[in-house]
Amino acid sequence: MPERKKVLLRLDPAVHDAVARWAGDELRSTNAQIEFLLRRALSQAGRLPRDTGGMPRRGRPPKESPGSEEGDRTGTLDE
């Protein structure tokens, strides 16, 4: 994944608080919520570049499925 751009963004405190509350309701960081909203606005306006990657996955990695190599341990400690 290419390096992410860093941007200084000045917001009205009331707007920031509203975005932060919305982000909390959707279990996102404020930064991730702002990126989500910008991507959605660009997409709706037909301006989202085709080569744009998906939203980065954050947080805890998904659990392994029971049939995967990690979860397929049949040995016991007594062996």
Task: Give descriptors for this structure.
single chain; 79 residues; Arc_rbn_hlx_hlx; Ribbon_hlx_hlx
Structure, described:
The protein is mainly alpha-helical. The chain has a domain at 13-44. The chain is built from two helices and no strands. It has helices at residues 13-25, 30-44.
Number of helices: 2
How far apart the termini lie comes to 43 Å
In total, the number of strands is: 0
Helix content: 25-40%
Q: Encode the helix/strand succession as letters.
A: HH
Mind telling me the C-alpha Rg?
20 Å
What percent strand? under 5%
Structural class of the helix and strand makeup?
mainly alpha
Largest sheet: none
Mean of the pLDDT scores?
83
Region (Disordered): 43-79
Protein name: Arc-like DNA binding dprotein
Biased composition (Basic and acidic residues): 70-79
Summarize this structure briefly.
The chain has 2 helices and no strands.
Give the topology:
Elements: H1 13-25, H2 30-44
Helix pairs in contact: 1-2
Protein name: Arc-like DNA binding dprotein
Biased composition (Basic and acidic residues): 70-79
Region (Disordered): 43-79
